[in-house]
Amino acid sequence: MITHHLNRHLTEEQRRRWIDLLQDAADAVDLPDDPEFRSAFMAYVEWGTRLAKFNSNRKPGYGPAEEPMPQWGWGVPGGPYQPQSGS
Ligand code: HEM
Questions:
Q1: Residue 82 maps to a domain
Q2: For the segment 31-76, what is each residue's pLDDT rounded down to a tens digit?
Q3: Residue 79, domain member (yes or no)
Q4: Among 12, 23, 82, 86, which is least packed by CB within 10 angstroms?
Q5: What total number of domains does the chain contain?
Q6: Which residue from 3, 5, 9, 49 has its CB within 8 A of the most atoms of ligand 1, so it is best to mutate?
Q7: Helices (H), ranges, the chain
Q8: pLDDT per residue over 67-85, tens digit each?
Q9: How many helices (H) and strands (E) does the chain have?
């Protein structure tokens, strides 16, 4: 993922717009919209977009060309939303 963004000089405004469009796309394809799923999803999007912007503006020769993708989890304790019985 690092090499795709090198020298693209992404701006904060572009990063925010990218996130907005991705959220619209998530709604358009009916990605689950429960709080737990979306917060886990947006945690990855926030992490990934800040890395993309950082790598797009980094100096040549700064750091490794690629790094392993961290294991992504639910973040919120308790995992996916389970409606209470009778709710
Ligand atoms: C979670 C965050 C992101 C991921 C996982 C991601 C992933 C990728 C991947 C896989 C590619 C290569 C696509 C290909 O070769 O077909 C790519 C290219 C690119 N990305 Fe990202 N990206 C992220 C965030 C961003 C953001 C925030 C921007 C701009 C604001 C951006 C702008 C671009 C551009 C301009 C290219 C090159 C497209 C081209 O060569 O035609 N990316 N990205």
A1: no
A2: 999 888 999 999 999 999 999 999 999 887 777 767 778 787 777 6
A3: no
A4: 86
A5: 1
A6: 5
A7: 2-5, 12-28, 35-56
A8: 778 787 777 666 666 677 7
A9: 3, 0
Structure tokens at 74: 């639910």
The parent domain of residue 40 ranges over 2-60
What phi and psi, each to the nearest 5 degrees, are found at residue 57?
A: -115, 10
Is 49's C-beta closer than 6 angstroms to any atom of ligand 1? yes
* 7 belongs to a structural domain: yes
CB neighbours of residue 78 within 10 Å:
8
User: Cα–Cα distances in Å, from 7 out to 21, 34, 45, 55, 69?
Assistant: 22, 36, 20, 8, 21
State if pTM tops 0.90: no
